Amino acid sequence: MFTVSFSDSQRQTLTAIVDTFVASLDVDEEAKLIENTLRVPGSSACFDREQLVRFAKTSGSSINVVDKIERKLPLILTPQQLRDLLLVINLLDYRPASILMTGHWKSFKDIPRSERELVVTKWRKSSFAVFRQIYNSLMGLSLTEAYFSHDTELYQGLHYNGIQGGYQHFKQQSDYQPIQHERLKMIADEEVAALSAVTFDVIIVGSGAGASIVAAQLAEAGFSVLVLEKGKYYHQDDMTPDDDQHAFSTMYEDGGIAPNATGTVNVLSGSTFGGGTAINYLACLEPSDDVRKQWAEKSGLSYFNSPQFQEDLSRAADRIGVSTDNIVHSGPNQKLIEGCKKLGHTVKTVPQNTSGRSHHCGKCYTGCASGIKNSTTNTWLKDAASHGAQFLDCTRVNGILIRKGKAVGVSCNVHHSQQIHKLFAKRVVVAGGALHTPSLLKRSGLSNPNIGQHLRLHLASICVGIYDQATHPSQGALLTAVCDAFENWEGTHHGFKIECFTQGLGMFSGMVPWLGAAKHKETMLRYRNAVITFAMMRDKDSKCSVQYDPYGKVDVSCDLSKHDEANLVQGIVEMARIHVAAGARQIHVSQHPIDSFEFDANEESCVDHPRFLAWIQSVQSQAAPVPSSGHQMASCRMGASPKTSATKSTGETWDVGNLYVADSSLFPTALGVNPMLTIQAIALHVSRQIVDSLCSNTKMAAKI
């Protein structure tokens, strides 16, 4: 990993940028912020005037945000991306370039703050994508690094009893009954050398929803199994629950949500032992009948529309304890339900993988310290361990070892060392997720043209409703309700579902539009009244693929289709209507040219209000926002022919024998629901094929 050290001029320019987005407010702005905040019902019990004054006066530079950005950039950028960012910062300090970018014949740092705000607002609304990308990058870095930390004056200015929520809130509930799991044993440094002398039956790359099932099934069948994971293993006692900043930097790719190289999509994915199951929102939904039929037709594989597929789904659900028992809807989920019911939309309870136990943690995306979430580390990987499977974390697999057209092992760097180890096996299973599995296959020389193509992302748009009532976003379960009224609104079953997307202050700061430093700070003080929803589409025909830059960093290419762009916009419209029906007073969306909507004090929240209807029309007239993706799939899809797919019906690659894929890469198209359960079901199918192949070889060897 490289390091970053800003020059004096770069630091001065970046300080001006940070202090534009997170500014020390002037006297008039401060007075207005205090007045508007204390006017909100219940706010006077949460904030005192002196606290709000400190919050108003705190700037980004006063809490060392520039230093935090300097430390974060190596985690999220390649050297080329860093050079591009530094070029922008340097140009803002070069007067001939600055006039083109800002309209001022002076360096950005010498422009008064009020005029700097106008400059970045023009970037936000610019018709040129490059300026919008500059705005997104600088805004995202400034705000998230300012609001993630809990040890600053900025956070203290926002703090009130209960803001943290999450695990600490859960522990205070009368039905809190944690489960203590045994620690999984990881192979130690001194044990690594001996591994090269062993030929395992199966080496599995990855430890998430698919890999864990394969490990458990193969180990239970009596085969020797080695699981390799590039992320670190965290036992529940090792976790730092409720600490968003720590979780994103240690358990997620690229330190959390990150834009692709061209700024056309923001991607969020896990990178820890247990994969996404360790940090997901516990949602367990089966694919619809229409999707199953489409998959069977698309792939030419009858499995997806067979009783066996349903049996696999049910078996996976049983093992991870999928249930709707003892679900208590949090404030945000209650608002989603309320708005849907008032508009006549169908809304359902989302089953959770908690074995029916109470679970009121609003920050399980930082890891489940209570042990109640049945992640793979608490279920399938425990099963695998009990049957002799071995685990190696912090290990990057560089390539598949191939001899005479068949996989025979892997080469890898263990525990972040530079030494390359070669480990051998009769079968190799790649289950690193839809972003990393194609990368490993390509690095290993596989040439099937479908590898890395046909990527689907469950592209989503975000909408934030601000209410007069407190919703306490981080208190209570994360995602327990889903509105599926629009899953077929366009007639091809490629619509969208609406769910809650609760996050802490750091992510929230980047989700609400920045409409000036004073307005943004005022909105941050309304976090306790916020409901974040997302419309997750079953993307249809956008051109998306997995790409890799010269440094080996994964990137996503995403070219939105007209159909999917319309889905994103319609999702915003329907979410806004649901929020208003539930009583929201403000609506915030991420479309760049659109300002937020707010009802006046004497106006009732009403979906038929003329001003709101006019605002909805403006939303519909604009292009879609930059979408986000929390689920990636279909980049090595399973099928009946190498012309249209990357793997066979068994999960084995077309190019190389004894090399299998067992993750969301296998999906024929987008799924349309949270994918954990479906990944596990398909992994059961792949596991049977591997067991059969190993048993067949054993029988053949016995005959010989």
Looking at the overall shape, the CATH architecture of the largest domain is: 3-Layer(bba) Sandwich
Q: What's the CATH topology name of the largest domain?
A: FAD/NAD(P)-binding domain
**Strand percentage, roughly?**
5-15%
Chain-averaged pLDDT? 95
- The coarse silhouette is globular
What's the helix count? 23
Radius of gyration (Å): 25 Å
The portion of residues assigned to helices is: 25-40%
**Alpha-carbon distance between the termini?**
51 Å
What is the secondary structure topology, with strand pairs?
Blueprint: H1 8-21, H2 27-39, H3 49-57, H4 65-76, H5 79-91, H6 95-102, H7 113-125, H8 129-147, H9 153-158, H10 166-171, H11 189-192, E1 199-205, H12 209-220, E2 225-228, H13 244-251, E3 258-259, E4 266-267, H14 289-299, H15 307-319, E5 322-323, H16 331-343, E6 347-349, E7 352-353, H17 380-386, E8 390-392, E9 395-403, E10 406-414, E11 420-430, H18 436-443, E12 460-466, E13 481-483, E14 496-500, H19 505-511, H20 517-524, E15 530-537, E16 543-548, E17 554-559, H21 562-581, E18 586-589, E19 597-598, H22 610-621, E20 628-629, E21 659-661, H23 676-703
Parallel strand pairs: 1-2, 1-11, 2-8, 4-20, 11-21
Antiparallel strand pairs: 3-4, 5-7, 6-13, 9-10, 10-11, 12-15, 12-18, 13-14, 14-15, 16-17, 18-19
Architecture overview:
- The protein is an alpha+beta fold.
- It folds into 3 domains: 1-24 and 59-162, no CATH class; 191-241 and 271-282 and 285-321 and 387-448 and 638-702, FAD/NAD(P)-binding domain (3-Layer(bba) Sandwich), CATH 3.50.50; 329-358 and 454-625, Cholesterol Oxidase, domain 2, CATH 3.30.410.
- Helix content is 38%, strand content 14%.
- Strands 1, 2, 8, 9, 10, 11 and 21 form a 7-stranded mixed beta sheet that branches. A 7-stranded antiparallel beta sheet has the order 6-13-14-15-12-18-19, with helices on one face.
- Strand 10 and strand 11 form a beta hairpin.
- It is globular, with a radius of gyration of 25 Å.
- It starts with 7 loop residues before the first helix and ends with a helix.
